[in-house]
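Record type: monomer structure entry
Structure origin: computed from sequence
Chain ID: A
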Amino acid sequence: MFKQNLFFQFLKKYPILIIAAIILGFSGALFNGISTALIVPVILKIVGQEVDLRDSPSLIKAIMAPFDDIDEQYRAMVMSGAIILTLLLKNMASYASAIAAGSLKRKIATQMREDAIDMLMSVDINYFAKSKLGDLMNRFNGEIPKAATSLSNFVRLVTLSITILVFLSILLSISWELTICSTILLSLVTIVNQYPIYRSRSLGKELSESSKLLTNSMIETISGIRIIKGNTHEEITKKKINSLVQRKEDAEYKSQLFAEIIAPSGEFVGIVALILIVFIARFIFADRIASLSAILLSYLLVLMRLLPFLSQLNNLRSTFANNAAAVDFVVDFLRRDNKPFMGNGNIQLPELRDKIEFKDLIFSYPGQEKQVLKGVNLTLPKGTTLALVGSSGAGKSTLADLLPRFYEPDSGCIMIDGIDLRDYDIKSVREKMGIVSQDTFLFNDTVLNNIAYGRPGATEDDVIQAAQRANAYEFIVKLPQGFATIVGDRGVMLSGGQRQRISIARALLRDPEILILDEATSALDTVSERLVQQAIDELSCDRTTLVIAHRLSTIKNADQIAVMDQGRVVELGTHDELLEKGSYYSRLYSMQFSEDGNNSVSEKLVVNG
């Protein structure tokens, strides 16, 4: 049912193109039929043979009637001109119909892609966690054009059916007996082509599946090229990808094999049927075959002109079958009722006036029973810093992800100025936030554009000031093209510390009221960490900040430190208060201080050595 709704949903948006394609297709079929019916009488006239129309069908008489009053000397010439004119009009109408159908296909593909982007921008982040990037890319770039082709082919099918009906009408008007025989014999074409069409469906599914696997593998290979080379798995990876390439090539070859057999097999059966019809005609009209020779020739000519359209019809059926899997994939991709969408409130957040409260938060990731957060209660007053510390898997990053509503808690709530976060317009909340994480993402664009992404419309001077405040200006101006340097995919041309400082500059340019720092210095060397920490201090000054700390020395001045363990807050206080307790935080700090001390000694030995 949803598939039919999808067809109607997209087709109804372009009624003018559809109507134009159908009317032009009908006009082309009409002109085609008229020109075909005129050919035999004109040829007979040219060679000097008298054409007897007394026993002709009324349709043939109607077509020939306009030429009755023309002088016999010029009649053949005028009729030839009429044939040329109708053929010209037929080709013009057919061309215009094809252009309309092509435009329809492009517009549908564009609309599908726009709907897909709208869906991807609206769906919950959890959808991306469960989906493979290659699957999404293959559906967006590979399957959508195939589905759009199927929709535009539906219009072609209508115009083609009209053309066939026009020719059948002409055939029926000439001889209903022969037309019944022709229909029975030509149905053999459909029967002969049924198996290739059936195989096209299964091969289309295999082609879509192999394309998906190949796209997945290529994306993973490019993304993980360092690991592949580091583990000397180049040959293994080549063999894996080559096998997928071969699988896709095999599916394409077999699809072509069955698609290409349709036309020649249809032509062969059609010609055999045509020969049989000649003998049947001789039997049916044995007593007046001589007087009806011109009419029978016209009938056979119309029938021969019909055969290519029947072949096109079967080719369309094959294409439909081959693209059936793509249509199914796109239907599943575009539908919204089977995807997680987060509800949106209608209250705007002009600014944070008082505090953020985490109340009795319980959370587990979708599809998992294990609770990641177990009754978390915390308060973050405006203009203060709340630091989250604890071992890996304690729930720190999960708690931070709930604040911008990347996920929804199973129970409990987050309150901003006494109002449930779910009642706010999600965009107005996120506009007040800046996020800097350990996994910094940079676009494959210039340094300037990556920083300016934080505030669309920012001037170059604004970007430079943000870079200076983030301790990024000095290294940026030393790059080959300065701020115009392309950083590569995910910023691969830069070091970890440089990427972090660009990310911080982006957040500074955004000038957020609420700041979320997720272990922003965890993977940096000492020098880079110091520079990044200075930038973070500049960024978090006078802001409401939620920081996840890897190095405890970086959050000594936090207004509150919440120690988390296995999804619970086990300690809460300032740095000095928690050290005085001599409990969990104190042990973590002592362990890290000892490690940092050893590292510091090692660094001095290396420098002095």
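Annotation 1: The radius of gyration is 37 Å.
Annotation 2: The CA atoms of residues 66 and 407 lie 76 Å apart.
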